[in-house]
């Protein structure tokens, strides 16, 4: 039996995420004012920028949690803004890890990793468990399969959340400040797992305040402010040698 990875359209090549002219407003508040960006297969793109600049809203438009007012968002070949798109299939291309850990508190770690595989991808229990254990091993938590989320540290819970997303075998992983809610001593383990994923060639779009991570891991950094991408390029440019005044001001506050 071949498992459905939701990856069917990716074979066509081209970028995994392509956003063109994206606008999003909440009532009178214009939050995204024309975003153009792409993430190529295997690329790690980090989004940095001040609080309120629209970073989470941008990720939420990619993950179909928000509906754009204008523009197009294409993920893994699925045009999310096309009314005829199969949105459930499109969603399977996307793994998301949020700031909060969002595990199902009443399910064991293993069940957290198998439930969507079984319900959404219709994998049988044995196959789902095999894939779950493989991914728990990858994030260094093989021995925690039988634990309940509350028995784990925040950093371990976040690694479980990453393993859960990976178990769906998405074409792209989205991270929204995955380490912001963690005690400082736990941040390194989570960033380590993300770094390993990047090394393995996972396509990743990461909102982060971890400049060291962005500098070392990102292929491309986007600096967002006020609902636009102010500056983008390799970290050696955007973080180490920014051209724009707004980028310099932001970096002087966070570095
Ligand atoms: P960031 O992640 O960069 O901090 P957000 O995308 O969360 O920024 O928010 C950008 C702006 O949009 C903020 O002013 C925020 O208050 C507003 N906003 C976000 N979500 C909503 C919503 N569902 N309804 C109204 N305003 C929102
Ligand atoms: Mg945010």
Automatic annotation (TrEMBL):
InterPro entries (UniProt xref): AAA+_ATPase, ABC_ATPase_HisP-typ, ABC_transporter-like_ATP-bd, ABC_transporter-like_CS, MetN_ABC_transporter-like, P-loop_NTPase
GO CC term, one of those recorded: plasma membrane
Protein source organism: Prauserella isguenensis
Gene3D superfamilies recorded: P-loop containing nucleotide triphosphate hydrolases
PROSITE patterns: ABC_TRANSPORTER_1, ABC_TRANSPORTER_2
Name of this chain's protein: ABC-type polar-amino-acid transporter
Keyword annotations of the record: Amino-acid transport, ATP-binding, Cell membrane, Membrane, Nucleotide-binding, Transport
SMART domains: AAA
All copies of domain ABC transporter, residue ranges: 17-251
Catalytic activity: a polar amino acid(out) + ATP + H2O = a polar amino acid(in) + ADP + phosphate + H(+)
EC nos: 7.4.2.1
Protein family: Belongs to the ABC transporter superfamily.
Pfam families given in the database record: ABC_tran
Top enzyme category: translocase
Membrane-spanning parts: none
MF annotations from Gene Ontology: ATP binding; ATP hydrolysis activity; ATPase-coupled polar amino acid-transporter activity
Keyword GTP-binding assigned: no
Recorded coiled-coil stretches: none
Localisation: Cell membrane
Entries under CDD domains matching the protein: ABC_HisP_GlnQ
């Amino acid at each position: 039996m071949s498992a459905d990875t939701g990856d069917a359209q990716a074979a066509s090549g081209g970028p995994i995420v392509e956003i063109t002219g994206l606008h999003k407003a909440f009532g009178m508040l214009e939050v995204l004012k024309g975003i153009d960006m792409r993430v190529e297969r295997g690329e790690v793109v980090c989004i940095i920028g001040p609080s309120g600049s629209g970073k989470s809203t941008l990720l939420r438009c990619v993950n179909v949690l928000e509906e754009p007012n204008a523009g197009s968002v294409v993920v893994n070949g699925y045009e999310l803004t096309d009314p005829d798109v199969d949105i459930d299939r499109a969603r399977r291309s996307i793994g998301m890890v949020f700031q909060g850990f969002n595990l199902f508190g009443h399910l064991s770690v293993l069940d957290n990793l198998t439930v969507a595989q079984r319900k959404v991808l219709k994998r049988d229990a044995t196959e789902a468990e095999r894939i779950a254990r493989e991914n728990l091993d990858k994030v260094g938590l093989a021995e925690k399969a039988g634990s309940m989320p509350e028995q784990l540290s925040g950093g371990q819970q976040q690694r479980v959340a990453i393993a859960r997303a990976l178990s769906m075998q998405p074409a792209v992983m989205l991270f929204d400040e995955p380490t912001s809610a963690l005690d400082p001593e736990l941040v390194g383990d989570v960033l380590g797992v993300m770094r390993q994923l990047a090394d393995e060639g996972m396509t990743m779009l990461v909102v982060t305040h971890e400049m060291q991570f962005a500098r070392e891991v990102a292929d491309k950094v986007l600096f967002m402010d006020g609902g636009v991408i102010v500056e983008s390029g390799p970290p050696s440019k955007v973080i180490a040698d920014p051209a724009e005044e707004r980028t310099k001001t932001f970096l002087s506050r966070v570095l």
